[in-house]
Amino acid sequence: MALHKKIFFIVLFVLFSIFSSTTTLAKKSVYGYLEPVTLHPDGTSITAKLDTGADTASLSATDIHVYEKVSKEYVKFKVSHPEIKKNIDYDLPLIRHVKIKSRAIDDSKVKKPHLRPVVDIQIYFDGKPHIINFNLIDRSHFSTPILLGRKALSELGVIVDGAERNTILKKKSKQNN
């Protein structure tokens, strides 16, 4: 009798494990490593790199100024990147500063962390609105103005297929035909 109980609980555990992982996957969708994102409220569509190797999300910004307004810190900045035809001005509350590990530059072996301001920005991903924490840094030397790391990808319910890109545009193209 004791053996039957053990077998029963093992089978029950296995079934529960399968069910819980299946329901988690059912809530997620597969996208490519490059996908369009629309910034709110401007409506500008720009390319985001979906990067499972990064922890946080970054937005390409210049003229970043942190200042105090009514006893609260704010950040003024311009979303700027060669992909964007016209800079987009923002003035948003500062959420926090995040410490980012920098890569070794040139021949230097020293990796110095630096602080970046973080703001909440509403984006539209695959037609749905999301508020994402973005750290601000000039990404003009990178191919994409936005990098979405693991935290943002989890919030968006995204699984990344590194062999695909622009799946949202392909899906919209099929729907229009």
Name some characteristics of this structure.
3 helices, alpha+beta, 177 residues, 24% helix, Cathepsin D, subunit A, domain 1
Architecture overview:
The chain is an alpha+beta fold. The chain has a single domain (about 30-175), classed as Acid Proteases (Cathepsin D, subunit A, domain 1, Beta Barrel). It has three helices and eleven strands. The protein has helices at about 1-25, 150-155, 165-175, and strands at about 30, 35-40, 45-50, 55-70, 70-80, 90-95, 95-100, 115-125, 130-135, 145-150, 160. The strands form two sheets. Strands 2-3-10-4-9-8 form a six-stranded mixed beta barrel. A two-stranded parallel sheet has the order 1-11. The longest helix is centred in the first third of the chain and has 25 residues, at about 1-25. Mean pLDDT is about 85; it is low at about 20-25.
CATH class: Mainly Beta
**By helix and strand content, what is the structural category?**
alpha+beta
Please report which band the strand proportion falls in: under 5%, 5-15%, 15-25%, 25-35%, 35-45% or over 45%. Answer: 35-45%
Supply the number of helical segments. 3
- What is the CATH superfamily? Acid Proteases
> Approximately how much helix is present in the residues?
10-25%
Under the CATH scheme, the architecture is Beta Barrel
What is the makeup of the main sheet? 6 strands, mixed, barrel
